[in-house]
Amino acid sequence: MSRGKTVSPSGLANTLAAAIVPRGGKRHTPLSRVLLRTSGAARPWLPAGLRDAIEQRLLSVWLNDRHGIALEQGKPPRDPDWPTEPDRLGSTELHSLPGEGLILLGDAAATPLPGGAAHLATTLSATSDAMIAYGDELHTGPDGMVCGHWLKPDRTDPLLLSRGMLLTGLVAVSDRAPGCDALLDALRSGTPLRDALAHLAATLPDTACVHVAAPVAAGPAPMPLDAAPPAPPSPLPQVSILIPTRNGWDVLSECLASLERTDWPRDQLEIIVIDNGSDDPQTLQQLADLQATGRIDVLRDDGPFNFARLNNCGARRARGDLLVLLNNDTTLRDPSWLRTMAAHALAPGAGAVGCKLLYPDGDVQHAGVICGLRGGAQHAFVGLGADDPGYNHLAAVDRSVSAVTAACLVVSRAAFEAVGGLREDLAVSYNDVVLCADLQASGRRNVCLAAPLFVHHESRSRGKDSTDRTKRDRHRAERARAIALHPDLFAQDPYYSPFLSRKLEYRLLLQ
User: Fold this and answer.
1) Contact by Cβ (8 Å): 132, 172
2) φ and ψ at 477, to 5 degrees?
3) What pLDDT, in 10s, does the model give residues 344-362?
4) 102-128 exposure pattern, b = at least 16 Cβ within 10 A, e = fewer
5) What's the pLDDT tens digit per position in 253-291?
6) Rounded CA gap, 477 and 474, in Å?
7) Which residues pair with 296 in a beta bridge?
8) Is the peptide bond before 30 cis (omega within 30 degrees of 0)?
9) I need a surface site. Which of 383, 425, 476, 479 has the fewest CB within 10 A?
10) φ and ψ at 231, to 5 degrees?
11) What is the mean pLDDT of residues 481-508?
């Protein structure tokens, strides 16, 4: 560096990031071992500017080494095979491939990446029942520099389709697709590409859209489109809420009191408390008093604690067409919670439905479950602010997931019984994950709602499984059993990109 020449803070951060991040993410230097986690992410205690520069450098290295895409001074390169003057339909660029039976549509604000169009065309041509192919994306800032990524799940989620979150940037559409002509007419009239594609996708079966696991375009990150929630069922069905408990009236009483605010006809709602051997006089008296008034039904089970067995017993006792599995250490935040969740749980093909749960301080405790993360199954977006949108707004929209927690889980009786309920060989841990996995394997779709409908005072009644060795050993054994039952799911969650880390959620997986 010449004397007197100043270096901007961002320039210094970029220089340091280049020295820290190893090429290919494979060979770590002494410096990278100190400043990077083993998963490749920057240490959280680094200054924000340096963290951002490291993340940018990691993305650049990943693109180059994994996909052969070299950024040009931080900006995305344009596919040399994309026409310099493509046909235009409003704000959409169109590129037809003669003899291929498909068209390529790109948002004018997006840059087609090298090889992207070819990936889409090849996949669409090779997939017999597919009508639309879409891929992953890079995000660019106002300066045109790459600043993020949208690595989409391999399994197409109709909920994300309806919000315009998947068919963006660059897509391939078969000219055999029903509604293709109407799509082109809409684009000519000025309808934005993703709006028109979301409308087309809504008319097609889920299998008509196929994901290509490769970055195909770069552009500004879009906001999710508005989407009307499903209407509550009519007439409203009988609902049974199942709450296992043992002693701890101070915890259970808060839960029951909050449920009194539920917006649902009282004669269509029953609450079954499964009492697992309470011996506290206050708890026993209060349960007896509530049962005498008809406000709750109490089912006594004095056997060893087995969350799966307790809920299965409650389900057999229940009269409802819709079952709600609810922890005794939860309190509702929204009286309309049941109407919201029931609308999804009774939709065709529905499996389990969960929702965002908050800690008492307002941070997220649960927003779906990612299978295969950190060797097991982990809650998504833990510690995020209640209104923080998270990775590409996934924490702010209803979405399909492989599993949700049974701390608050709604499922139709028909779906629950079709898979045999909860597996009782998983007494404490992973019984909810495996229930959801069983439902998913049967062809049903599990959903996590973005609305924070409950507060979860996690494990107040039983304590955490990490508190003693016996509980830790049981947890490990039940995790191993769950993985053995659904090895493919734990090897790769279909709603979590294979390009994302298994150690830190929604961060790049570096080899």
Assistant:
1) yes
2) -65, -40
3) 999 999 999 999 999 999 9
4) bbbbbbebbbbbbbbbbbbbebbbeee
5) 999 999 999 999 999 999 999 999 999 999 999 999 999
6) 5
7) none
8) no
9) 383
10) -75, 145
11) 95
Q: For strands 132-140 and 209-219, give the pairing.
A: parallel
Whether pLDDT at 427 is above 70: yes
- 41, 493 Cβ separation under 8 angstroms: no
Least confident of 29-33, 131-135, 371-375, 473-477: 29-33
Residue carrying the six token digits 């008093």: 289
pLDDT at site 459: 55
CA separation (Å) from 345 to 118, 341, 350, 410, 448?
39, 6, 5, 6, 11
Q: Give the residue among 180, 230, 215 at the shortest CA–CA distance from 66.
A: 215
Tokens of 339: 């109407």
> Which residue in 219, 227, 197 sits closest to 209, CA to CA?
197
What angle do helix axes 469-485 and 431-441 make, rounded to 10 degrees? 10
Residue 401: name the closest of 353, 361, 469 by CA: 353
> How do residues 399-410 score in pLDDT, each as one tens digit?
999 999 999 999
Q: Contact, 146 vs 71, CB < 8 A?
A: yes
Higher pLDDT, residue 148 or 54:
148
Supply 136's token pair: 């992953």
Q: Exposed, middle or buried, 500 (CB in 10 Å: 0-12/13-18/19+)?
A: buried
The answer to whether residue 448 scores a pLDDT higher than 90 is yes
3-state DSSP assignment of residue 256: helix
Q: At what angle do helices 193-202 and 180-188 cross, to 10 degrees?
A: 160
Q: Is 10 helix (H, G, I), strand (E, B) or coil?
A: helix
Tokens standing for residue 327:
């922890």
213 Cβ partners below 8 Å, 6+ apart? Answer: 135, 136, 154, 497, 498, 499
Whether 258 and 331 have beta carbons less than 8 Å apart is answered as yes
119-160 confidence digits (pLDDT tens): 999 999 999 899 999 999 999 999 999 999 999 999 999 999
Which pair of tokens denotes residue 177? 């697709």
Q: Say yes or no to pLDDT of 461 above 80.
A: no
Helix (H) or strand (E) holding 40: none
Where would I find the H helices in 103-192? 116-126, 158-162, 180-188
